Amino acid sequence: VQLVESGGGSVQAGGSLRLSCAASGDMYSSYCMGWFRQAPGTEREGVAAIRRYSGTTFYADSVKGRFTISQDNAKTTLYLQMNSLKPEDTAVYYCASVIQCRADWNETGTYNYWGQGTQVTVS
């Protein structure tokens, strides 16, 4: 499975960005897809995840009500709509996938495939 993120950039606090993740390859091993982020000097943390076929979503408390995870109709492109951005949202954002979402959806060790990351800077 190959994952390629795009859409990062710099934005002022209160602004919005939409990240995309194009997925290809053996998607039968990736029924769950998620977004993670890592700020300098911190551990990578789970932001949101989605079960590709049911559409069930999961969110970290820190982004609930501000971020929305979604996918296109073909279920090969993942999105993260980020609204009301705060300086503490500044991080490298990664797309990841695993065969299914479980209670540990927000743990990095759960996921098998990762993108290269895209930088989001909020000032």
Instruction: Measure the end-to-end span.
Output: 34 Å
Q: What coarse outline follows from CA principal-axis ratios?
A: globular
In round numbers, the mean pLDDT is 95
Alpha plus pi helix count? 0
What structural category arises from helix and sheet content?
Answer: mainly beta
Q: Main beta sheet: strand number and arrangement?
A: 7 strands, mixed
Protein described:
This protein is an all-beta fold. It has strands at 2-6, 9-11, 17-24, 32-38, 45-51, 57-59, 67-71, 77-82, 91-98, 113-114, 118-122. The protein contains no helices and eleven strands. The strands form two sheets. Strands 2, 4, 5, 6, 9, 10 and 11 form a seven-stranded mixed β-sheet that branches. Strands 1-3-8-7 form a four-stranded antiparallel β-sheet, with no helix packed on it. A hairpin with a 5-residue loop joins strand 5 (45-51) and strand 6. The relative contact order is 0.32.
